[in-house]
Amino acid sequence: MRWSAIAHASVAVATLNLKQMRPPLAEQALSPRQQQSPDPSAPSRFVNAQTEKFSVNGTALPNVDFDVGESYAGSLPISSNANDTNQLFFWFFPSENQTVGNEITIWLTGGPGCSSVGELLSENGPVLWQPGVFKPVRNKWSWHRLTNMVWVDQPIGSGFSQGNVTARNEFDVADQFMGFWRNFVDAFALQGYRVYITGSSYSGMYCPYIASAMLDANDTQYFDVRGMQVFDGLYSNNPIPQDIPVSSFATAWSDVLGFNDSFTASMQNRSTSCGYQDYLDKYIAYPATEQQPSALPGVESDQVTPVEGCGLFNDVFTAAAEVNPCFSPYTITSLCPVKYDPLGFSDGTSYIPDGSGPAYFNRPDVKAVIHAPDKEWAFCTNEAVFVNGTDTSVVDGPGSQPVIPNVIDRTQNVILGHGSQDFVLISDGTLLSIQNMTWGGMLGFQTRPTEPLFIPYHVNDNFETVAGAGVLGTAHEERGLTYIAVAPAGHFLAMDAPQVAFRSMEVLLGRVEGFQSLAPFTTDTNNTAQPDVDMGNGTVLITQGGVVGGGNGDASSGGNVVSSGARKVGSNNWLGCIVLSVCIWVTLY
């Protein structure tokens, strides 16, 4: 999500939520011992007369010194008119695991107006080139190792998509995407494929509307939606994800933010006087006792504009940036210097050092390889992707959107993940949305999330994709909706904790039973042994009234805390022997 899209109330947003299930065992992929890598000499099932023009030469990507494998990229119209100039851009990677059946996962980046192929390169695609890294590397956490993956730049105006901006709301976005998807399915002969819809940030709007529209179409040849997953999503209007929880968040992370006593006291007093703290205490409750009111505290009658003195989020953000000039609302533990980003985003600062050249996807040689249109590419566009810059989707009360229960109840398979270090969309806002949503005949979670989020131990065979293991957060499931709170992650969960995102995909696809499973990664050919001991509680402490913190510590110590002794896998804070040349001790925030 672009910071500017949050700082300015120019986009009228709606209220949403999600859920989680597992497909029947007969539909699951084979075990890692049965998985097969692609045979380069074997013909691909996706090559045909319509798709040959989209084929990407896997050895020709500039700066990439390895073969990225089979992929297809290009543009397709959003309607049945083959000459329609309104087109969405895609990059499709068939799974490298040839035992994967008829399924495909869609990734949609948020914004609104940010590029999905940008996050292919920076988060969960086969090629990884993250800020501060010298060159692109092979991504062992690429989701195409699990399933067929396609990244789509949408709505029109985002990334390499082309045409006139005509979307006024999320219903229009869903309609346009479904037109594109029919063309994509027809081109690659994907009729009858199981579809999983995933995304992050503003895709908390996109994914539920698209998933719900696909389900309502009752056409499993094109729209057989089996699950949905959103990381750090936007589901509600401000003040729900920002002004209401910001004082509680800043207090929990006081050791990181470094505010002095007078500012902290003023912040907390304003939160109380604006009604924010009482709102948190009353409505983050387990079980939820009542629907949240349509009239929110601290805002004018438009339910968006803060009343005088209650625009707390922007004031806390300004103060944090004064203490730490390189403060990132996406990951609050970030420090100076700002890292060079080959995509030109750099945590929203657009910092590009002299002599570095254009952003990777703005290079003519890169565009040529992936059949991209000759247009200016930006990770997040400054142009509007909705008519008049406003998403006019109808808001049906804070934290509750009619399309979400439809997706949950009909798929029983939605995962909402949230990084604890995310400031731009605070995790308590997601919890407020969940506790204000009715699915499966009940309001919100009935019990407080406490269960551990376990990530299997594994061999880290290079520094480029090193990732921790053990209990890395808290996970909770009820009636088809799973919520995961991830301690070592901020807004870009799949970048900060790729192993958690990878495991989450295994759960979404039905490869493993859940986030307390001790099964190794399904791609782990070593079949790494896992500890058979009590894991204890999750390491993000969620209490009545919200999240207390997101890291190691004692629940009575203040700051970034979790319940004492929460992690019992392994020994104390040891997250496993990271197999490079030494064993590394890891402490999470």
From TrEMBL:
Keyword Protease: yes
Biological processes, Gene Ontology terms: proteolysis
Keyword terms of this UniProt record: Carboxypeptidase, Glycoprotein, Hydrolase, Protease
A single GO molecular function term of this UniProt record: serine-type carboxypeptidase activity
Superkingdom of the source species: Eukaryota
Family: Belongs to the peptidase S10 family.
Protein name: Putative serine carboxypeptidase
Organism: Diaporthe ampelina
